[in-house]
Amino acid sequence: MKKTKVFQLGLRGIPDVQGGIEKHVEQLAPLLVNHGFDVSVLARSSYQPKLDNDAYKCVKVKKLWNPKIKGFEALIHTFIGVCYSIINRPDILHIHAVGPSLFAPLARLFGLKVVMTHHGPDYDRQKWGKFAKRILELGEDYGVNYANEVIVISKTISNLILDKYSVESNLIPNGVTPVEPSSTLETLKKYNLDAKKYILIVSRLVPEKRHLDLISAFEKANIPDWKLVIVGSSDHPDSYSEQIIAKGTEGRNIITTGFLSGSPLTELFSHAGLFVLPSSHEGLPIAMLEAMSYGLPVIASAIPANLEVDLVCGDFFELGNVEQLESLLKKYTSSELPTNKREEIVNSVIQKYNWNAIAGATSDVYHKLLSRKSYKHRHQDVS
Question: For the chain, where are the alpha helices, taking DSSP H only?
């Protein structure tokens, strides 16, 4: 029996490529293969790691050219990806994020069935100018109104597109994979860290992640036996990322590691004492869910997407309120979290954000689309 062919588009690549959407597809795509789909990821050639047989866990990976131009590489790559899809005719073209969804009408014009996943209003990010924001807003408009099915990763996004476009969506959150904490200390030794004595943030070095708020609060908190570890890099280095990296070279108990994945990142999550996410913009933060899957207490900015996550142990602070964040850093570094409390955090997040359930819900959306012959939206929540 012929398998349903699905192309995933709108991401840099998989596996171990920096970014929330990249992590999302890295986890989801192999599970969709287990559901009987023939899945291909259309990756950006400049980011995609070399893979044996151009496949990852039975997910095919096709590298397509992209320019390394900030603000344009995603759109140009998506246009190429849609053209590739028009020629190669997948049963479903699954586009991720609002920017790439700008080309949903083109895909529909040539008879493709399109699923859009809305990962958050990217036009709200601080890094974009007026023109880029308008293009992203247009991408959201076209994606929501021209895709056959729309998936959203949070209730906040679901309410957003219902209010703006009167379109109901399929609510399927991000997830986490159960992990075996690392017992090794090689990465800690490399960066001169003591277990349970460092604060961790894992994100790209972009303004909306608000690293400077955390750095300022950490310096003011004056907790000399703790360190701040900043994991992440920037696709396009700029003054902001250079400012963060400079902080890591000044010898103030602030360490910048660059992008990490695999064992080194697992080790840092496993032995951290606290995770902080001070962002001004998120969809549904995978990094926060990952931190909780390691049993870490979390401090996060009180933005709508973060507030959707039930913190078993942690606190929210007013976005940009460095004094409030400073106070919380002092609170959560004053004593170590008991083992039973860490286990409670792990059990809570694994139960609520399970990738197997997420893959099943996505499969249901695919089958619903394939069984329908008309264009009309028939969305429903599947969370």
Answer: 20-34, 73-88, 104-109, 130-146, 155-165, 186-190, 211-221, 239-247, 262-271, 286-293, 304-307, 322-332, 339-352, 355-370
